[in-house]
Amino acid sequence: MVGPRVLPGHGTVQIWADAGSGGTGQRVDVAVDRLRLAEIDSGEGVKALYRLETSHHRG
């Protein structure tokens, strides 16, 4: 998943979810508290690679 490197403190953000087959994928709104920076992210640029937390717990 690709999204902005700087995330808002709360709410949702639009990310690009790649389907893994060519240029297919879609834009998806995701709660920012479900996104985690992916280990393969370079740490550079205005976009970042994220992984999605599959279980969402509200505290």
Write the layout of secondary structure elements.
Elements: E1 2-4, E2 12-18, E3 25-31, E4 35-37, E5 47-52
Antiparallel strand pairs: 1-5, 2-3, 4-5
Describe what you observe in this structure.
- The chain has 59 residues and is mainly β.
- Helix content is 0%, strand content 44%.
- It is built from no helices and 5 strands.
- It has a 3-stranded antiparallel β-sheet, with no helix packed on it.
- A hairpin with a 6-residue loop joins strand 2 (12-18) and strand 3.
- The mean pLDDT is 89.
Secondary structure tally, helices: 0
Q: Using the alpha-carbon principal axes, give the shape.
A: globular
Kindly report how far apart the N and C termini lie.
25 Å
Q: State the share of residues found in helices, binned by percent.
A: under 10%
Strand content: 35-45%
Low-confidence region ranges: none
Largest sheet: 3 strands, antiparallel
Query: SSE string, helix = H, strand = E?
Result: EEEEE
Question: Which class best fits the helix and strand makeup?
Answer: mainly beta
Total number of strands: 5
Taking strands numbered 1, 2, ... along the chain, how are they ordered across the largest sheet? 1-5-4
Radius of gyration: 12 Å
Mean pLDDT: 89
